[in-house]
Structures are given as structure tokens and as C-alpha cells.
Amino acid sequence: MCREMEMRLNFVNEAQFLLVSEASVADLNDRLKSKWHNGSCKRPTQVSPSRFRPNLVVSGSKPYDEDGWRSLKIGETNFTSLGGCNRCQMINLTSVGGTMQRSNEPLATLASYRRIKGKIYFGILLKSCDSIEEEACLRVGQEVVANID
């Protein structure tokens, strides 16, 4: 993945948009639950999509289908995939009762099956293909059409 130097970025590191799927989060939660049942976790950790700080959450796909998406259209807005999002320890922080709590999960579990060339990926980075002069509006429930070519 190459960082797109020409695109406008506000308060993000790599891309305009980060997309995760509910199915991928559910698969991760199943793995976390299994780890707890096997005794390798002290307490069960369950995560919501918000733990990954995405601005787009999709449903209706199989887990990790988004890894293969090269481009997609949400409503009338077109996006290009910039590749997977390299995850760091920030996803291990959670706010409970107004205090920050740290653990090694979910990053440790993701590392067990999502590591590629030393990096741990979850979700995909996107850039808008439409002109910044064009008005674009995304709405909950809009159809997502992915292109895997």
C-alpha cells in the first residue's frame, strides 16, 4: 500500500476513510470468545466496530471480504481501496466508566491470524474518487457495491 500524498487528510494518518465490516468484527469476537473458553484469556473481551475508529461500517458481507475490494460505490459515491489498515496498540484501549483500560486484546488475537509481513491488518483504507467540488452524501442503509477486480 502506498500513502496517497495528493489527498486531503484531516485528523487521520493514512486515508480519508476507514471501513470495517460487522462480519469481520463478529468473527474477531468469536475468536476472542473461543480464547476465553480455552483458558488463554483471563476475561472475555468483546469489541464493537467503534473500537477500530472507522468512519464507515458495512454489513451483509462475509468476514474479511473487504480485504479483496479494489473499489466500491456507496449510494452514488465512488471509493478506491488503498489496502488494509495496519493496526497498532490503540485498539487495545477502551474507556470503561470514564477511565482508560489497557489489555493486549484484541491486537494479540488479530496478530494470530491477520499478520502479513510483520503488520497486523483489520479494515481497509479508502479514498473518494469523486471531485472535492462535487457534493457527496452518505446515508445509513445505502447499498454498497464492491468491485474485486
TrEMBL record:
The keyword Transferase applies. GO terms for biological process: monocarboxylic acid metabolic process. One of its GO terms (molecular function) is molybdenum cofactor sulfurtransferase activity. Residues 1-147 form the MOSC domain. Transmembrane segments: none annotated. It comes from the Eukaryota. This is Molybdenum cofactor sulfurtransferase. It comes from Handroanthus impetiginosus. The lineage of its organism: Eukaryota, Viridiplantae, Streptophyta, Embryophyta, Tracheophyta.
